[in-house]
Every structure is written in C-alpha cells, then in structure tokens.
Amino acid sequence: MGVASIGSVEANAPRIRFDRNELSGAFGDMGTDFPLLAGMILAAGLDPASTLILFGAMQVLTGFFYGIPMPAQPLKAMAVLVISQKVAGSVLYGGGLAIGAAMLLLAVTGLIDVVAKAVPKVVVRGIQFGLGLQLASLALKEYVPAEGVAGYGLALAAFTVVLFLLGNRRFPPAPFVILFGVVYAILFRVDGATLASGIGFRLPQVHVPTGQDIWSGLILLALPQIPLSLGNSILATRQITRDLFPHKDIGVRRISFTYAAMNLLNPFFSGVPTCHGSGGMAGHYAFGGRTGGSVVLYGALYLAIGLFFSGSFGQVLLLFPKPVLGTILLFEAVTLMALAKDMVSSPAYLLIVLLVGLMAVNLPYGYLVALVAGMALAYLADKRWIGLGKQS
C-alpha cells in the first residue's frame, strides 16, 4: 500500500494507543525535526539537554491533548535563520515568546478565524504542495548524499524497505529503517566509549528573555516566520486534520492556542520555538500513527536522550544517519503533496495548486506571496473571470 491509499480514521478509534503501528508512526516526522534541532544546537550553542527535553515534552503534551498524531515541530523559518546566520540562542528564545504572543493575540481576538475563512481550500492545498516540494528537495539534495556512496546505499536500502512495507499494519516500516540506520552507525560511525562517557542525568536550564531579546527575536525571526506559520502550522494543519480525522472538531483557534502555549512556555526553560504542521501529521500518519500515542512515543525518545544522553550529543547525532532520515522525509513529502489529489478534477484549480506551491518554494517571502497571490487567483476563479467553476 502506498501514500495514495491514505484515508480517514473512524470516529470510534481510541485517543491514545501504544502498539507497533504507533511506534512506527512516531518516527514519521523525525526526518524534519532531528536535523533542524541538531543544526540549531550546533549553530547557536544551545544546551542540548534543554532543547531535547522541552521538545520531547511538547510532543507528549500535544499527543495527550489532541489524541491524534498532531505534531510539535521546530519553527522552520526560524531554524533556517538561526543555522544560516548563527543567531544567538537568547534571541531565538525571544523570538519564540514574540511569536507565541502574536499567535495568542490572533486566537483571542478571533482574527485567526477571519484569516481561515478568507483563504480558500485550493490555496491551502497549494501551501501543502509547496511544503512537500521543499521537503522532498531537502531530502534528495542534502540528506541522501550526506555520507557519499555509503549514504546512497543506506538510502536505497531504507527506500526499498519503506516502499514494500508502507501501509502494512502487521509490519510497519519505520522501526526497521531506524534500526537499520542505528546498526550502521554503531558499526561504522559511533565511538561507544565517548557515547558512554556522556551518560548522566540532566535537567533544562531556566532562562528569562530580556526585552531586547524579545524585540530582536520579533524583527529577525518571528516576522519572517509568521506567513509560513499561518499557511502551514494553522491553515494546512486544520485541513489535514479534516482530511484524516473528519470526526474531530479541531478548528484554527484551538490549534493557534496550543501553538501559542508552547512558545510562551519553551523560552523560559531554554527550549526552541515549536509549532504544529501538516507535513508532520502526514509523516506520522503515513508511517502508521493513528492516535496521540505516536507523538507521545516520539516525545519520549527526545526526553530520554535529553535527560540521560545529552552529554554525548555529538555521538547521539551519529546514531541517526541523514540518508535514513532523508528517506523518511521523502515519503512524508510525497504524502503531503498527494493531498492535492482532490483538485485533479479541475485542471484550473490544479494549476492554482501548482502555482501556489512553486511560488511558496522559489520566491523571497514565498509563503506570504503564495498566500496573497493564491487568494487572488482563487477569488478570480470563483467569479468565473478566468472561466472556472466554483469550488465545492
């Protein structure tokens, strides 16, 4: 079974379940999250224990709160800026508080509902498609070639396993793929003595952002992040929740509140800003997750690493080879792009999806431009100014 077989979950499904499929689903977003967390830790000199513990805690809380594989992810635009420009950790924490406050304001005032009503479904599909393109490009251009010839071999083996087992409820693929990568790393990459020497109990570091950190974080990090958060973290996440869990009444305001809550808490314990995301849910679901149990298990992994193994984070990082994570990321990307299949019946709407996706990926401030331009095209379509029928 492939990604095209994705359907919705029944209304009587449990909220939390721990089994082999939830375990497999737990790893469905690791290809996105782990490299971004590692990149920020190394670029900004963040405390690994605090970063991993808080990230894991957000997963656990989100899983229990929603009862579906609702992801908690690093804020991607912020992460890229921190990694590429070596932004200080204090500014990152300030940016987290700033965007948390902004999202809380949108939720409390109801402005997020206004935004949700204004953006048509076809534009949301375009945002999802664009994010899928972005993730696929990252997987194929950066993660798979990361270890040279051996990396291509790892990726090919992982791809073959996932291709044959994706959708198999008896033998879900992700645990096999992750185990394969870990065994490879232990044999060829990890120094066992160094890994063991860093084992010890650690807790998060308390941090109080200054006014200057919050202001700098707002300007440098939060403002570039907001368009992506509105398009993917809020609107696209609400849409994929409707696609996969139609019996769940989860609106944009609820998603905005939990988004805000995470970012109003994380900075005070040196945790990186986090969000929800349609790509993460697509990944958890594609690899078997159907309840909040998948993200609870996923969070438990980060909690364990942060609490006990963060002292040898450099060796832990090697346990999850990028080519393996890239393979998981690729299937997450394809699953996300496949959601646009409900637009295929209208060639014009499919064209809008493609245009929005390409604009989001390739233009400066792409997600903002894609939202605005996509809305204009969709409303023109509804007015039949370019010969399109009204969207159902």
What does this structure look like?
The chain has one domain (13-336). The chain is globular, with a radius of gyration of 20 Å. A two-stranded antiparallel sheet has the order 1-2. The relative contact order is 0.24. Helices cover 69% and strands 1% of the residues. The model is unreliable at 385-392 (pLDDT under 50). It starts with 19 loop residues before the first helix and ends in a 10-residue tail after the last helix. With 392 residues, it is an all-alpha fold. It contains 18 helices and two strands.
Distance between the termini: 29 Å
Chain oligomer state: single chain
Count of helices? 18
Overall domain count: 1
The largest β sheet comes out as:
2 strands, antiparallel
Mean pLDDT: 93
Q: Runs with pLDDT <50, length 5+?
A: 385-392
Strand order of the largest sheet: 1-2
- Class from helix and strand fractions: mainly alpha
Shape: globular
Q: What is the helix fraction of residues, given as a range?
A: 55-70%
Order of helices and strands: HHHEHHHHHHHHHEHHHHHH
Fraction in beta strands: under 5%
- Count of individual beta strands: 2
Radius of gyration over all CA atoms, rounded = 20 Å
